[in-house]
Amino acid sequence: MEKKQGLLLVNLGTPSAATPDAIKQYLTEFLLDRHVVDLPKLFWSPILKYLVIPKRVPYIIHHYQKIWINGASPLLHYSQLLCDKLQRHLPNIQCELAMTYGEPDMQSALNKLQSCSKITVLPLFPQYSTTTTLAVLDKLKQIIASDQIIDNICYIRDYADHPSYINALYLQIKQAFEDQGEPEVLVLSYHGIPERYIHKRKEDYIERCEMTTQLLIEKCRANGINRPIQMAYQSKFGKGKWVTPSTSETLQTLAQSGVKNVHVICPGFSVDCIETLYEIDEENRELFFNAGGKTFYYIPALNESDLQMCLIIELINHTQPFTFKNLYSNT
Ligand SMILES: C=CC1=C(C)c2cc3[nH]c(cc4nc(cc5[nH]c(cc1n2)c(C)c5CCC(=O)O)C(CCC(=O)O)=C4C)c(C)c3C=C
Ligand SMILES: [Fe+2]
Ligand SMILES: [Fe+2]
């Protein structure tokens, strides 16, 4: 019998339960990764343990509890639904899900794919970043080096400008406009990063977000959507300077200048999670209303939709993947 091909979807990771211990464990693993926070370990470790975690956990736990779906974090819930749906539609490909931090872990997922003739890794981050995509690739490279399976494994760097991705976002926006009515302004909100990473690393995240925005605007204009579209960055964490404009300031400025009605979409989040369901749809909605806004609609992520499934099938069939042999010349 011919060997199957494998598909490994990788997302960020999320707490295994909406409890203080699980959130503490997740945040500690995530925020100790040098891809995410680049401060010297001897300096950062005690600050994280004794100052950041004790403050962050009691603050964020209520947000997680509010958005929890059927006993799972939305990030895991939607990522698993997507993986299961792909598996149903691709009987000749073995589909597995892994997270960079926490469960399901990458080593176990790769073990399950051991008998595959070829494995394609798709980090579920549409825009490449050293803080997310490179964290996945570096972790994989370590596992692969010890398992000696480098030859049959390849990865898709990102899909910020892929026509199927732009089309899927456009259709999601069109549907929202039909269902909810056209807003005065559409805001595209991407996860931010610390500003210093742009100069310090080989980081083209901002360019990739701008590329998605430009192509999406062109697609909307070509199809008769002419409402103003603005892009912004959300989820600032910590004290340093992050890329601007910030989503919350953008929304408040819009409301203060008389805009009553907005839609917000988060193109950089492949599935809904705390940053979209709580930060955007709860916190930023409230900020917009407090500044004078009247209606606010959050356009859901692609999640396990047919649009997302077709996009991924298109990516694995028609994108030239990279091999791990020359990882560092591509990243
Ligand atoms: C320095 C800290 C952080 C950087 C850099 C960062 C980059 C980054 N993150 C995502 C996607 C997600 N982040 C999520 C949650 C999250 N992110 C940070 C911090 C940084 N992110 C924290 C501390 C958290 C946890 C929640 C909180 O305490 O606010 C999530 C959702 C996880 C979930 O459980 O739902 C996603 C997805 C991207 C795309 C990115 C850089 C491009
Ligand atoms: Fe984040
Ligand atoms: Fe947040």
Automatic annotation (TrEMBL):
<comment type="pathway">
    <text>Porphyrin-containing compound metabolism; protoheme biosynthesis; protoheme from protoporphyrin-IX: step 1/1.</text>
</comment>
<keyword id="KW-0456">Lyase</keyword>
<feature type="binding site">
    <location>
        <position position="275"/>
    </location>
    <ligand>
        <name>Fe(2+)</name>
    </ligand>
</feature>
<dbReference type="InterPro" id="IPR033644">
    <property type="entry name" value="Ferrochelatase_C"/>
</dbReference>
<dbReference type="GO" id="GO:0006783">
    <property type="term" value="P:heme biosynthetic process"/>
</dbReference>
<dbReference type="InterPro" id="IPR033659">
    <property type="entry name" value="Ferrochelatase_N"/>
</dbReference>
<protein>
    <recommendedName>
        <fullName>Ferrochelatase</fullName>
        <ecNumber>4.98.1.1</ecNumber>
    </recommendedName>
</protein>
<dbReference type="GO" id="GO:0005737">
    <property type="term" value="C:cytoplasm"/>
</dbReference>
<dbReference type="Pfam" id="PF00762">
    <property type="entry name" value="Ferrochelatase"/>
</dbReference>
<comment type="function">
    <text>Catalyzes the ferrous insertion into protoporphyrin IX.</text>
</comment>
<feature type="binding site">
    <location>
        <position position="191"/>
    </location>
    <ligand>
        <name>Fe(2+)</name>
    </ligand>
</feature>
<keyword id="KW-0963">Cytoplasm</keyword>
<keyword id="KW-0479">Metal-binding</keyword>
<comment type="similarity">
    <text>Belongs to the ferrochelatase family.</text>
</comment>
<dbReference type="GO" id="GO:0004325">
    <property type="term" value="F:ferrochelatase activity"/>
</dbReference>
<keyword id="KW-0350">Heme biosynthesis</keyword>
<dbReference type="GO" id="GO:0046872">
    <property type="term" value="F:metal ion binding"/>
</dbReference>
<keyword id="KW-0627">Porphyrin biosynthesis</keyword>
<dbReference type="InterPro" id="IPR001015">
    <property type="entry name" value="Ferrochelatase"/>
</dbReference>
<keyword id="KW-0408">Iron</keyword>
